[in-house]
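Reply to dn_fold:

You asked what the input looked like. This is it:
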Amino acid sequence: MVRWISRRIGNDSAHVGLRTGDAGAPVGPRAAFVGAVAVGFGAWGVFQATLSPDLVMPLVATVFFVLAAVLGPLAWLRRGMSPLNVTYSDVVGALTLIGVFAAAAIEPEQMMRLIEGGAGMNSKLER
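and this is what came back:
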C-alpha cells in the first residue's frame, strides 16, 4: 500500500502544486468554495446591517448549510475526482463546518427570544 501511494504521488507530483496555471489541478471546486464563501459572508454583512442581532447568526448558519446542501449533489456526481487535489466533497465539508461553527456561536437566550417572537425586524427600536 505504501509503495502504491509513493508511486502515485511520484507520478502526479507535477499536478499536486497550487501554482496558477497548473494543468492537473481542477479549478471548479476552488471556484465553488470561493464563490460560496463570498456569498455566505456577503449575506452575513447584509444581515448584520439590516436585521436584529438575534437573527444574524441563525441565518448565517442556515446560509452555509444551504450552500453545502446545494453543492452536495455535485460532490456526489464528481466523487471520482483525484483525492490529491481539492474536490467538491472537500468544499461541501468545509461549508458544513463553517455552518456548524456559526451555529455554535448562537446563544441559548438568543434562541429563546427568537422562539418567543421578540426578535423582529425592528426589535432594535423597540428596546
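The chain is about 70% helix and 0% strand.
Hope that clears it up.
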